[in-house]
Design a protein that fits this description.
Helix content is 78%, strand content 0%. By secondary structure, the chain is mainly alpha-helical. The longest helix has 33 residues.
């Protein structure tokens, strides 16, 4: 049972890694003027809710399976993403707004955030992989 928890977490983490890479590539395309702000924000905003669901799933899975360290590791980034989603000002299209993405260095901030998420998900990937191997050996 414990191995199944980490296998599901590993698959979910791979999905989150691919999403983080997609965010980085799309934001760098905007930075290099390969796509316009409206197209970039449209592409990224449709992946915000699936990212929230994937993060929430892993966090809830770790809570239910009583893996406290991994739960506490995932909790801040899940809480941050929920806060960011709920704190979108009225009138904005979504978390990524085409009228504001070039203002006040928001593009750089979004790029830093995507890089931090990629590093976090890579760290979690190796933790889940190690935990899965231990669970398989102990069963």
């Amino acid at each position: 049972m414990e191995a199944l928890v980490f296998i599901l977490s590993l698959v979910d983490c791979c999905t989150l890694i691919f999403m983080a890479v997609y965010f980085i590539i799309t934001l760098s395309d905007l930075e290099c003027d390969y796509i316009n702000a409206r197209a970039c924000c449209s592409k990224l905003n449709k992946w915000i809710v699936p990212e929230l669901v994937a993060l929430g799933f892993v966090t809830l899975l770790m809570l239910v399976s009583m893996h406290w360290f991994i739960f506490l590791l995932n909790l801040p980034i899940t809480a941050w993403n929920i806060y960011r989603y709920l704190a979108v000002p009225c009138g904005n299209v979504g978390v990524f707004d085409p009228t504001e993405i070039h203002n006040r260095g928001q593009l750089k901030t979004h790029m830093k955030e995507a890089m931090i998420k990629l590093g976090f998900h890579l760290l979690c990937f190796f933790i889940y992989l190690y935990s899965m191997i231990l669970a398989l050996i102990n069963d």
